[in-house]
Design goal:
Arylsulfatase, C-terminal domain, 14 strands, alpha/beta, single chain, 15 helices, four-stranded antiparallel beta sheet, eight-stranded mixed beta sheet, globular, Alkaline Phosphatase, subunit A, binds calcium ion, 2 domains
Length: 562
């Protein structure tokens, strides 16, 4: 029936000989037909909850009208950036679900994406910087055994795990899991039944259908794949991807299959090209064109979220669909330097930076439509919750594992932990980060906005370790290893470095930070014995002997987890 309808719609288009008009009409008609057949006047609810993860590229904590920062009493505080951006659908999600005020991702794309898929810290899965599609992006002194090819056909992934549980696994958007001409470039090698738009590229050549989304010229390097039906059309990339996501969700519902929709948008990554549906002149707060375009991209991605929520409702599955919305690294809003209070103001730093603005992202979790049904009663998300205990991107996998009652194989090492208890815990909106959780973000690479650093968060303390693996011997001025120490409860915007004034705290945190890294107090060693690693191990002993603070010794910690 479906095939026949499609055939006759195509035939009608040919008869009308209005090629460009027809293509768009054809798509819209197919989608409308899908909706009618799927709903049929009643909902077709799967016994298993559906899951949509919407991952926004380079969207930071402050790039939204939802205030994620709170005062000491846990009440949301609006800052100028909250008033400059417009994200009404995120607001709706926050009102009906939960927002996390302190949610961490890795500082750049690929490490975060692989952490999301694997439940592991990037220091464990070893993709510790972004994957350049065409070359090993290790940098001059990066880890010899970093995982520059990302995921492959044998990798444990959330997608494969969902598929093994009977889900239809749908990838729509940006992949960036592996370089060109490797298995990791194709999400269908990683457990996804369907892939629209995913490849090795980390940004689109163009957001415009009239530019074929970058597929122009003899050798386009950043063309978004599999959207040929929209080439030459007046359609924005976000809209094309949303139509495709809706189409495959519809098909899954028609087939009575639960779906896992992973919807990593290309937005709001550069190039900063505005969506014509959201005019840039509606953002007079921003003085430069790129910032105005960025604000348009933010509105556009939020519009996509709203369309997905509406689609779930139209299909009758909204009450049975969990929505997780998050960013993949700190903001890249074109509003200032990487270490300034600008892009993520009042937070310091932006994408790629070791400051909070580099690694804090928006995180919302909500049922698409709250309802007192059995599934939601079991996985409760109180409306309007604000969770101040911190979470991280690798927590998503264990969280959905609790949702669908499917264990992660015991042999699989997972760094995340389920966020479910925080959602129903009345103490979650507390600033007492007294738990035993540690967050470690390891970036042993250069050049980037911040080179060679490790962040270690424990309780309210945040340690930043800067190291410079150059040649042995005395360090050049400004090139010595050093620490920064901040008390985030007292100084959330990282203005007062306490490394010199708190040697005891510093020493304890350094010991804890190095503990999981090879060569630390646990005695584990690097996987291979290169000269660089040997230098690190010998220098580590000087650290263990108590040389704390801003030392002129070059302490190298380029290894990754065993
Ligand atoms: Ca990113």
């Amino acid at each position: 029936m479906y095939a026949y309808r499609r055939f006759f719609l195509c035939l009608a288009c040919i008869v009308l000989t209005m090629a460009s008009y027809c293509t768009a009409t054809h798509l819209n008609s197919v989608l409308a037909a899908d909706r009618d057949e799927a709903t049929g006047g009643k909902s077709k609810v799967s016994k298993q909850p559906n899951v949509m993860i919407m991952l926004i590229d380079d969207m930071g904590l402050m790039d939204t009208s939802v205030p994620f920062l709170v005062d000491k009493a846990g009440k949301p505080v609006r800052y100028p950036l909250n008033d400059a951006y417009s994200t009404p659908n995120m607001e709706r999600l926050a009102e009906q679900g939960a927002r996390f005020t302190e949610f961490y991702a890795m500082s750049v794309c690929s490490p975060s994406r692989i952490s999301l898929m694997t439940g592991q810290n990037s220091a464990r899965h070893r993709t510790t910087t972004w994957i350049n599609p065409d070359t090993n992006n290790k940098g001059p002194n990066g880890p010899p055994e970093w995982n520059w090819q990302g995921l492959d056909k044998n990798s444990f992934t959330m997608a494969r795990w969902f598929r093994d549980a009977g889900y239809r696994t749908i990838h729509v958007g940006k992949g960036h899991f592996g370089p060109r001409n490797t298995p990791g470039e194709d999400p269908t090698n990683l457990g996804f039944d369907i892939n629209v738009g995913g490849s090795s590229i980390g940004q689109p050549g163009s957001y415009y259908g009239t530019k074929n989304f970058g597929n122009i010229g003899p050798k386009p390097t950043h063309g978004v794949p599999s959207l040929e039906a929209y080439h030459g059309k007046e359609i924005f990339l976000n809209e094309a991807l949303t139509l495709e996501a809706k189409r495959y969700v519809t098909e899954s519902v028609q087939d009575s299959k639960p779906f896992f929709l992973y919807f990593p948008q290309y937005a709001v990554h550069a190039p900063f090209q505005p969506d014509p549906s959201f005019p840039t002149d509606s953002h007079p707060e921003f003085k430069n064109k790129n910032a105005q375009a960025y604000a348009s991209l933010i509105q556009s991605m939020d519009d996509s979220l709203g369309k997905m929520l509406a689609h779930f409702e139209s299909l009758g599955v909204a009450e049975n669909t969990l929505v997780i919305f998050l960013g993949d690294n700190g903001s890249d809003a074109p509003l200032g330097g990487p270490h300034e209070v600008a892009s993520s103001a009042p937070l310091r730093g932006k994408k790629g930076s070791h400051y909070e603005g580099g690694v804090r992202v928006p995180f919302l979790i909500s049922w698409a439509k709250p309802a007192p049904n059995d599934i939601q009663n079991e996985f409760k998300i109180p409306a309007g919750s604000i969770v101040r205990q911190w979470g991280a991107i690798y927590d998503v996998l264990p969280t959905v594992a609790e949702l669908i009652h499917r264990e992660i194989p015991a042999t699989r090492r997972i760094d995340g932990r389920s966020l479910r208890s925080l959602l129903s815990d009345s103490n979650s909106n507390s600033n007492s980060h007294t738990g035993d959780r540690e967050f470690l973000m390891h970036f042993p690479h250069a050049p980037h906005r911040s080179d060679y650093f490790t962040i270690f968060r424990k309780g309210d303390w945040k340690l930043i370790y800067h190291y410079f693996p150059a040649a042995p011997g005395p360090a050049a001025p400004g090139q010595a290893s050093r620490y920064q120490l901040f008390s985030l409860s007292e100084d959330p915007f990282e203005q007062r470095d306490l490394a010199e004034s708190n040697p005891a705290v510093l020493k304890e945190l350094v010991a804890q930070m190095t503990s999981p890294l090879p060569g630390g107090p646990t005695g584990r060693t690097c996987a291979s014995g290169t000269a660089i690693e040997q230098r690190k191990l010998s220098n580590r002993s000087s650290l263990d002997n108590g040389q704390m603070g801003n030392t002129n010794r070059r302490i190298v910690a380029i290894c990754i987890f065993p």
